[in-house]
Amino acid sequence: MIHCPNMLMIGSTGRNVGKTTFACEVIRRHAKKHQVIGIKITTIQTRDGSCPHGGQGCGVCGTLKTGFSITREQLSGNEKDTTRLLLAGAEKVFWLRVMRGHMEEGLRSLLAEIPGNAMVVCESNSARTVIEPGVFLMIQETGSTDIKPSCDAVLKYADRRVMSLGNGWDFQPDRLAVAGNRWVIRPNATAIILAGGESRRMGQDKSLLPINGRPLISHIADQLHYFPERLVSSNDPEKFAFLQLPVIPDREPGQGPLMGILSCVSRATHDLCFVTGCDIPTLDPGFIMHLLALASDNDIVMPRHADGRMEPLLAAYRKSIIPAAEAGLHSGNGRITAIFGQLRVCFIAMDESGWYHNLNTMNDFHRLTGL
């Protein structure tokens, strides 16, 4: 399986359901800030000259003499899908014609021509059998129950089934965002940055450590831009006014991080919250989305390292924690772990791929920045 988080793949349950129209709208929204590459894939069943759509066909299938063919499309005066993608703002558009048995080979050859930092919008069903994109959407016409075979084979992988309403969709293109170098669906959740610690081991305020000329907390807030709401937990709102984000004070200062979590979760617009400390310079959006997805049946979803260490300040919390947190703090036990016994807590393996770093001391900071 090819992992391609910078790809948005758009499939469809049938023909003429607005797949290209949706793709064009996404490109228009993102082409001004990002290099966007469009891909159109035509999967060919056989070389016997018959058209998979029936009838005489257009010759696309019959003219393919090898396992696949890659063409860079140019602007033309016709209404081809690839022309529409270019007019929407795609920097380049490629057309991959490929025999079904050569799909992976064809895609690997095509992806080798695309810069790693480009955002890709790909129209295909069949490609999902060999590639794992950042987001996979399936467009379906409202009221239609017909599902073509290429869709049926991959429908279970769809992150979202989008209903085409004729003049729009029940899932708007602005729900898609670019986080780092990955496509994500904006979550119905609040992001909370805890910035109320005393930074004793660091010897100075960790949240304001300079990285590339900007405070560390600015980098963290920027990485969470795809959340519809971001809150900062601190008892010093003036210190973080430059972030232009709501700063939520503790209900009772001096009670530790559980009080900061409780105070922000209580004020959050959304039931689900992602909580991070202000000393984690890199946040992996794929890992965050995985945390949030598991929270549907849990009150807390928390990473745990192989050695048993937990990460309560890189976790998902629901508003359902409020009574337990209030009771624990009222009893004088402000440890986050003290409320676990009253809640549904899901532990997941901490991603050890290398992005996670926690800055506790100046040595940690110097290793990160090379200063």
Proportion of strand residues: 25-35%
The CATH class of the largest domain = Alpha Beta
Could you describe the largest sheet, including whether it forms a barrel? Answer: 7 strands, mixed
What strand order characterises the main sheet? Answer: 3-4-2-5-1-6-7
| Gross geometry | elongated
CATH fold category name of the largest domain: Rossmann fold
Mean pLDDT: 92
SSE arrangement, N to C = EHEEHEHEEHEEEEEEHEEHEHEEHEH
Helix proportion = 10-25%
Strand-pairing-aware structural class: alpha/beta
Q: What can you see in these coordinates?
A:
With 371 residues, this protein is of the alpha/beta class. It has 2 domains: 183 residues, Rossmann fold; 180 residues, Spore Coat Polysaccharide Biosynthesis Protein SpsA, Chain A. The chain is built from 9 helices and 18 strands. The strands form 4 sheets. Strands 3-4-2-5-1-6-7 form a 7-stranded mixed beta sheet, sandwiched between helices. A 7-stranded mixed beta sheet has the order 14-13-10-15-17-16-18, sandwiched between helices. α1 runs parallel beside α2. The longest helix is centred in the N-terminal third of the chain and has 12 residues. It is elongated, with a radius of gyration of 24 Å. The chain starts with a strand and ends with a helix. 40% of the residues are buried. The model has no long low-confidence stretch (mean pLDDT 92).
